[in-house]
Amino acid sequence: MTLLQESTEMTFPLSRVRASFPALHVKDQGRPRVYLDNSAGTLIAGQAADAVAKTYCEHNTYTGVFDSFSTDIDALVDHSYASMAAFLGSSDPGEIIIGANATTATFQLVNSMRHMFGPGDEIIVTHRDHEGNISPWLRLAEETGATIRWLGFNTDSWQNETDELRGLLNENTKLVALNYVSNLTGTIADVAGMTKMAKSAGALVFVDGVQYAPHFLVDAPAIGCDFFSCAPYKFFGPHLGVIWGRRAVLENCRPYKTRVSPEQLPDRFMVGCPPFELLAGLSGAIGYFESLGQWAGGTGSRRELLSSAFQSIEACEAALFARLLSKLQDFPQLKFLGPGVTPTKGARAPILSFYSKDGQLAQVSKALTARGIHFHWGKKFAFEASNYLGLGPDGLMRIGLSHYNSVEDVDAFADGLTAAFSKA
Ligand SMILES: Cc1ncc(COP(=O)(O)O)c(C=O)c1O
């Protein structure tokens, strides 16, 4: 055991954490799994996977009648909406929309807001964002005659410039769609500051928190925004997308729904039969965070346990990321995107993307994959930002760390990179 691991293990229950993720213990071609593609999707917590399986094995597939199958499912749905509200800092389950993934949930929300937009209205989107928080707004503008305004970012700091935002805002701005954590560099935007500016211009604000929620405790209402999106499969749960929306704004939305769907929140955003097993898995994932909060020494309310869990996640990921950055100093051929700062709630999440100045990354990626190392490769995941930066046809490599990664994982990646470059 290394010194770093020993000192981390004293404050962070790494062995217990790793034992909670069954997929970590699968071997890849006989080698221990090194899973560093967490920004694409994390491994599912055993607690979440068990809840999905239990629902399939023990329950029925519909609700709305009087038998115990049905009443158990009603309780399960209520629990998952309440858990998700607590996770996002709200005490109102009516403020939660759950969809197939973050992008689908955003399209669903956008469809419910058409009547609020028309010619002359303006929507601000950013070049820093994932398509999931761009395309829905482009479509809304196309269909309502609203105008899109683009907000750029500083390519050194990877931050949106507040002066540029100030220049774009005016009395016609109806909505500003912001990115919280870049899925390319992990840099954290000052969404609270930008929300304040947008609000003083009278705009609604949508914050894409998909890459923030796995690493830091979310308090969506405290940001001051109207909507906050996240994706549970990126924080140890099943494939779903969740949006928190301010109740008063959601009440003004007109979701596409059937005549028989209730009008009250959150039911008015539920169309047809919900995926009960995945909702159970969602509660399981949040239960996992609560367990982690206890293992890290936390006590008290659900929110206190979540806070304790995220404090320990933050400390552990910052130490691992610092090690990754220092190991990668030895590769002068790599060009890193974004500033080299250690993850903290104010600066960066543990996400790192880079390309090779001599264009050998495709070959290197294949060699790393053969060593059982999982990472992300390509450009589609950051379509808009890659175009904005004018990146060439070669793909990017992205490493996204999670709290269940070990020092050995980081070292295996750096050793694999050395070996792959020496052969390339
Ligand atoms: C920042 C960001 N926003 C939105 C999305 C879209 O999420 P989903 O796949 O749940 O639609 C992603 C996916 O990687 C993302 O990284």
Write up what this structure looks like.
The chain is an alpha/beta fold and about 425 residues long. The chain folds into 2 domains: about 5-45 and about 300-424, Aspartate Aminotransferase, domain 1 (Alpha-Beta Complex); about 50-285, 3-Layer(aba) Sandwich (Aspartate Aminotransferase, domain 2). The chain contains 15 helices and 15 strands. Strands 4-10-9-8-7-5-6 form a 7-stranded mixed β-sheet. It is globular and about 65 Å long. The structure holds pyridoxal-5'-phosphate. The site of pyridoxal-5'-phosphate has 13 residues, from helix 5.
Following the backbone from N to C, one meets helices and strands in this order, namely: HHEEEHHEHEHEHEHEHEEHHHEEHEEHEH
**Helicity range:** 40-55%
The percent range for strand residues is 5-15%
Strand order of the largest sheet: 4-10-9-8-7-5-6
- State the name of the first-level CATH class of the largest domain: Alpha Beta
Oligomeric form = single chain
Query: Could you give a short account of the major beta sheet?
Result: 7 strands, mixed
Number of beta-strand segments? 15
What's the CATH topology name of the largest domain? Aspartate Aminotransferase, domain 2
SS-based class? alpha/beta
Broad shape: globular
Let me know the average pLDDT: 93
**How far apart are the first and last residues' alpha carbons, in Å?**
32 Å
